[in-house]
Amino acid sequence: MKLFSETKHYLSVYRKFISTSVSEATSFRTSFILMIFMDIFFFLSAILTVDFIYDHVATIGSWKRPQLMFFISFMLTVDHLHMLLLSHNFWRFSDDLKSGNLDFTLLRPLSSIFIVFFRYFKPSSIPNSFISTGTLIYFGMQNGFGPTQWILLPFLVILAFILLALLEFIISCAMFWLVEGLGINFLRMQMQQLSRWPDFIYGYFTKKLLTFGVPVLLIGSGPVHFLLDINNWPYLLGMIVSCIGCFYFLIFLWNRGLNHYDSASS
Amino acid sequence: MNNLQKWVQTIKISWKRYTAYRLNFFLQIIGPSLIFFFIKYNLWSSIYSGEEGLVIKGYDFNQMITYHIWSFVVAQIAQGHTALNLSIDIRMGRISSYLIYPFNFWEFHTASFLGFQILQLGITCLSMTVFSLLGILPDFTLSGMLYGISACLYVSLFWYALQYFTGMLAFWLEETWILRVILQVITVFLSGAVIPLELFPEAVRSVLEYTPFPYLTYYPIKIFMGAPVDMLNFYGVITIWLAIFTAINSYLWKRGIRLYTAAGM
């Protein structure tokens, strides 16, 4: 009962976050439209890069065009969720730490992780939802997905997004120990870059490190390997274990970071 | 002489500013290029390992890696700079100071850019030493290297003019980082930084020849690789685009400064 009422409370707060973000974003219409174009350009460049390569080769690793295009679409859908729900917050977090604005966040009677990382919603990414979902469905059909895969697909997108978010929250915690946190945002973006390609392109040690050490390769490769061949279920298990492990590590690191935090205004 | 001293001092200050937070500088400027190269190295290794003796549009594996090593060098020297500080100065009202300083706004930012470029040249030399130790640095001649670096430095002037243009728009726009990201995404894709332009469909390549994009990465790489490049055409095209954007920037400054209001003014 307590869990239900707390969830309801957090959802009501999140509704307000969305509402204020929409008001703020639509106040600057040129920026809003440019952001839509930015997402579309990014989407097209990622898809066309792979498409142009496949004009010259039949396979990359063991994957043919439809399989890798599905992987890219899957990652773009996860990236899209990330852009929509989280992306702005990481940049604000580094500013808030420097300016001491985090003090106001810590005073609120809500989880500080929730307020820091879910405060800003990016409404300009909504139009891109149709493009990324449409592309994902198109390449899913090209791979001849059956009912099981179609049912699993949305859950796996959400699971991949959760793993990506947890890993990025963990990386962002490093900002507590640095005077200038901007570079950490670039590190976070580089981790995303690594995950945007399937695990088999990397060498043995890199693959092991980025699957078991910092599991960024599980974000896309895990679910897609599983969807393309259900026998690859250990990937899915790895993702779930990684999510649980990352969640507890995040809580530990966040609390250590808060203890270390010395406000600019205090 | 007095003005030269101001330039030298501004360059020194910009060095200090860039290197004040060294980890931040590494993660922001060098890290992305290194990771980008690492991904491309792995991707092309994976592609070429699938078929022995594979040649794609004239590129065997070694030539493809050579292309991407020079692409890393070009990205460092020619496209490292951003106009982040410039747009922040406009948005935060800091340009009020430049209006009374005996050193212009453009002079200050161009001197900072020069400071950044000198730093980038040092970092590129260091990176090439690392590539050499790893045994992946391609063979090069001294003249080829000098031609390549000269081309990159000239391109960096054009890149600076483009960045300056996005920064100037801060007079009208709330956020200019979006324009910088759009410029970055389009440039990385269309300039041949991810895949050589020979791999693009013929129709796309023909259209790109009328744009400045191939001159930002593809042609400087070809110069480093010792491939035949019409230097007169290369420098001519960059000069024309540079002149166009310098004129636009000058016009934007004149219009923008009329709009400008700051606290206390």
Give an overview in words:
The complex is a heterodimer of chains A (266) and B (265). With 266 residues, chain A is mainly alpha-helical. Chain A has one domain (2-260). Helices cover 77% and strands 0% of the residues of chain A. Chain A is built from 12 helices and no strands. Chain A has helices spanning 2-27, 29-54, 65-85, 87-99, 102-107, 112-118, 126-142, 147-172, 182-195, 204-213, 217-228, 233-260. In chain A, helix 11 (217-228) packs antiparallel against helix 12. Chain B has 265 residues and is an all-alpha fold. Chain B has one domain. Chain B is 74% helix and 0% strand. The longest helix of chain B is centred in the middle third of the chain and has 30 residues, at 105-134. Chain B is globular and about 65 Å long. At the A-B interface, helix 2 and helix 9 of A face helix 2 and helix 8 of B.
User: Which percent band covers the strand fraction of chain A?
Assistant: under 5%
Helix content of chain A: over 70%
Helix proportion of residues of chain B, in percent?
over 70%
How many distinct helices of chain B?
12
The average pLDDT score of chain B comes to: 89
Termini Cα gap of chain B = 33 Å
